[in-house]
Amino acid sequence: MIPLQDTIPSRRTPVVTYGLIAANGAVFLLELALAPAQLQRLFYCFGIVPARYTHPEWAVWMGLPVDDYWPFLTSMFLHGGWAHLIGNMWTLWIFGDNVEDRMGPAGFLAFYLGCGVFAGVIHGLAHPASTIPTVGASGAIAGVMGAYYVLHPRSQLVMFLPIFCYPFFFTIPAVLYLAYWFMLQLFSGTLALAAPGGVGGVAWWAHIGGFLAGLAVGRILGPPRRWRAPAHYWRDRTRYV
Within 127-203, where are the H helices? Predict the structure, then answer.
């Protein structure tokens, strides 16, 4: 089940959303030009590695500065493959424009980056001893999804579901899809904490943290109020028109 688009048109060009998509795409093209060893080093230096901060002796042995917190920002622009990049950017394209409409370009950029940093911190707290680099924009995009959940409660999503060779299209409430997505992250994140290895290939708690941050900001802003004409409005128009 793949979301294709929502039913709320944006009122203005989402320049920050488009800019973020372009920036992530440009960085990924640079990644493709690197040798495997160079790419691994890039992920360790600019991705979030929790053990870098909780086990400084390990970080020094790996040649990583322990007082460098830029990875909480730079990790948002790195991706581990085409599917990782396309999935994240597609989700940002669907939900980002309407949230940017509500917050404005500058506010949306600050919100996006803040959610990404918060998501990285939550991931580090959930897996403090992890030596696996975490990269990707999904924590920040989860924040966008959380804000969308609150700001556009009546929105619908056009979904695509391939049934054998037949493409099936249908619409569902966006809040239903987003609630299902969040519960899936919460369930998977809980299992990841209980698993012997502790950390899998997905930073579930970064998604959870980002979504909750977006939900909180969305609650503060609240959904836009629909304009209602006062009682005398139609009476006056009937009188003079």
Answer: 138-151, 174-194
